[in-house]
Amino acid sequence: MLAPVKVGILGLGTVGGGTVHVLQHNAEEISRRAGRGIVVTHACAKVLNKNHPYSTDQILLTEQLTDVVNNPEIEIIIELLGGTTIAREMTLQAIANGKHVVTANKALIAKHGNEIFAAAQAKGVTVAFEAAVCGGMPIIKAIREGLAANKIDWIAGIINGTSNFILTEMREKGSNFVDVLAEAQVLGYAERDPTFDIEGIDAAHKLTILASIAFGIPLQFDKVYMEGITKITSEDIQYAEELGYKIKHLGLTKRTKNGIELRVHPTFIPNKRLLSKVEGVMNAVMVESDALGQSLYYGAGAGALPTASSIVADLVDVTRTLTTDPGNRVPHLAFQPNALVDLPILPIEEIETSYYIRLSVLDKLGVLAKVTNIFSENSISIEAIIQKEISSSSDHVSVVIITHQVLEKRMIQAIQAIEKLQGLIGHVTRIRLERCA
Amino acid sequence: MLAPVKVGILGLGTVGGGTVHVLQHNAEEISRRAGRGIVVTHACAKVLNKNHPYSTDQILLTEQLTDVVNNPEIEIIIELLGGTTIAREMTLQAIANGKHVVTANKALIAKHGNEIFAAAQAKGVTVAFEAAVCGGMPIIKAIREGLAANKIDWIAGIINGTSNFILTEMREKGSNFVDVLAEAQVLGYAERDPTFDIEGIDAAHKLTILASIAFGIPLQFDKVYMEGITKITSEDIQYAEELGYKIKHLGLTKRTKNGIELRVHPTFIPNKRLLSKVEGVMNAVMVESDALGQSLYYGAGAGALPTASSIVADLVDVTRTLTTDPGNRVPHLAFQPNALVDLPILPIEEIETSYYIRLSVLDKLGVLAKVTNIFSENSISIEAIIQKEISSSSDHVSVVIITHQVLEKRMIQAIQAIEKLQGLIGHVTRIRLERCA
Fold first, then answer.
1. Is the pTM for the entire model greater than 0.95?
2. Which of A84, A395, A405, B196 has the most crowded Cβ, counting Cβ within 10 A?
């Protein structure tokens, strides 16, 4: 058997510790598969958790990143620094030193992946990033390799566990967003600053990567439309239930004849669809492709051990291709670098979807007639209308409308016109609705 | 760009035709990914469907299998002959000729895989078989590569679409088995001779393969416990609904401290579990592993294009490793050939599971007391009992019991004792129940 592959790790926090733990705890399983051992020989860590479940006896610890990145013995660097500044520098330096890199850093890949992959390509090394999308789920491998025969039509995914946990709790307990967010923070499912998760930024990072490997387009994080879950109310969740839907925070990317849709937002999904059954912190990605049809991948999207699972799978893959001619490795973005196509990304106004619309009006039939008129003028066809008295003492009613598919810009126009109507109370609530996801 | 890889195909039936269609229709996508073309240059077909959607202009057609298998120009053979006699011979001959083989033949791999992989190993070629398990779902890749970091604990899968279709229809329409089977045959979801599907043989082929790649054990089809869906009644399906379960035909393989469970049978699954939501002809496989936890893979388990999707994915993988040192390829059974471990397969008497038990008794409290006594004597603990009058005019009642986990041999003993009781009408119905799947 060959000597073990030597790995250096940048960052021994939760995920780094989990990775060392998995490599040590499952060393036998891993080398039975890989045909040789994979060991962490060097690690850079500012602070070391004394209660970690792994041994640092065989690991040379340092506080200098460059001690690891420039060490000639190390063949693969695991980048777990977070952020995009030092992480980018260290990744590029590792590449320049001829080392392969495994990373769980979705922001790094979404924002600097084009540059990083070009550098890796030029140097003939691999940058592997399974752990960057949906933690432990092997979704990158499934799409990049498992679906290699397919033209992919769309991807719809629950790709942010925090948002899915919050929406699940809001529905099951009837609680409001703020309370559930606080609960999620106590449980460790949401960060102290939860912006990345609840505003859709984290999901947008992942969707950027999924769209590139699905359609063979460059990474374009700045073109993702982003909407988080902060405005979802218990009222909307209740209406969803009544109408046979669930509200899920989805990342959606779709190939259309005009370009690629690339959007992250709360979405009504019919109760019958499998994605609507994915609860709590779990992630799931549905892919529609021409040969296979619909396929779904489900698993833990975060956590130390699930993320370590993907990192170590990448280590095994990289180990197997150490002696492979770089041209025969799986390309970083699924398609050969010279075969990427710069398809246009559609602005949100140009996407097509259905809608759930909720408005509060004074109890006048006239308002409803005007609303349906405005829809009709904007070629928006209505699938269902529900009208509900808020309470017997109140003089206004809630009107809920489900529409068929329409261009978003028409809906924007319609909402602008509706919001000018006399008799409308407050703003119009608009949540996109997807029937196929 | 390199010249296209030349592929020969044995059998141009539904799946063969689908494969040629996908390779032609998605030629651009495929070569953008693989970095070179993949073309079928030779095919052996006894009868050719004139209405197929692909072109045979560039394909040399022959009726002699050996014309394809012995052709020195061909690098990869796709084996789609079905059966295990000629298919085995041709596969071994292709290997002997130094060709890689891609197959969708689950019986061939389950029964002769050990011999075939040993021959391939000796010759330094690959035999790829993603299409042999669950059609288009990339489940072999997910387990063999995606979960490489994990110790796998168990796999539970809906891996026979025909059985799942029949059970779904029986539940949704309240129909009985025989009628739905006839309907499935008309729709093309069941074969004229449906034995392989409804008796669990097809599922057992797939489970044999899944167990090997999960645990690193040799293929042992003859040790799979098999039970089909032919004895499932509408009555049991109705009780399942009432109790909050669905009946699914599962393939189950589990690592226990005494050995490996390897079993295929109808199973009660709690309604809350994702597997219980998988309906119709779709397949889904849940995997429990130590680092990732639970992950699920869902997709079309049969059909020309889904199966072609896996065959072509294998072609791309094989193409990428044509120049790879064989020792660095992904091992056939996930673990290095010299690292397989011959863990004992448990006989069905030694497996541990929960049970749904239904019996019909004359309306005497005494019988029920004796039944609970027998369970207690066999250390079987009862979770729930339901007693139902069949009708007001009838003098017997149906008793349904849900048990906790127990060794199967204890349940066999208990049932034997119960069937000797006076007051029992007919036989005891016993369906295994899994809470975690």
1. yes
2. B196
